[in-house]
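Board notes (copied after class):
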Amino acid sequence: MNRAPLSDRLTRTREAGVLAVLRAPSPESALEAAEAIIRGGITGIEVTYSTPDAAAVIRELIRRHGERAHVGAGTVTTLDQAAEAADAGAEFLVSPGTVPELTRAMCETGRVVMTGALTPTEVMTTLDLGVDVVKIFPASLGGPGYLGALRGPFPDAPLMPTGGVTPQNLAAWFAAGAVAVGAGGDLANAAAIAASDWADLEARATGFAAALATAR
């Protein structure tokens, strides 16, 4: 499949800046959580496949928000999930690791593909398979300094740290060279989702949005 130039494919991801890694116990709570996060100013939503009926959630968010939100699928670990998410309209597909057969299938969907790596060897393998963004996970193990060190041998690789990203260190991640960041527990907080505390999620998103504006 012919794909647009990388810079064009990543425009929406760069604009979103932060992808909220959303894990919810039900489709209904996932939708409510996503709405709260979007109200707070974070428009990148990664609906993980640990959420029941993830594809239906993706489809509904796209129906509601269209181009106003950047919606994709996360924790993609099977060929069926990759195909299903693409059919649901996911703009990007994210996997926690990099498995060659799955990664190639994800790339063949034509969606923006982000797969996980941590070491330089893994980054090289991931780039060789043609992914658009290397998800550095868990980024909390090395922090922004580690991401910056990876920029030495990989100056042109789009890197997205996920794990350990907070409003307080967001600017440091971007200064280290992140193309975007994935934010889980500090943004799409599991306890707040379980308690249906949508005001808390909205406030968290507002904090991230403010930090993102400052970082840029």
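Comment from the instructor: The chain is about 45% helix and 15% strand. The mean pLDDT is 96.
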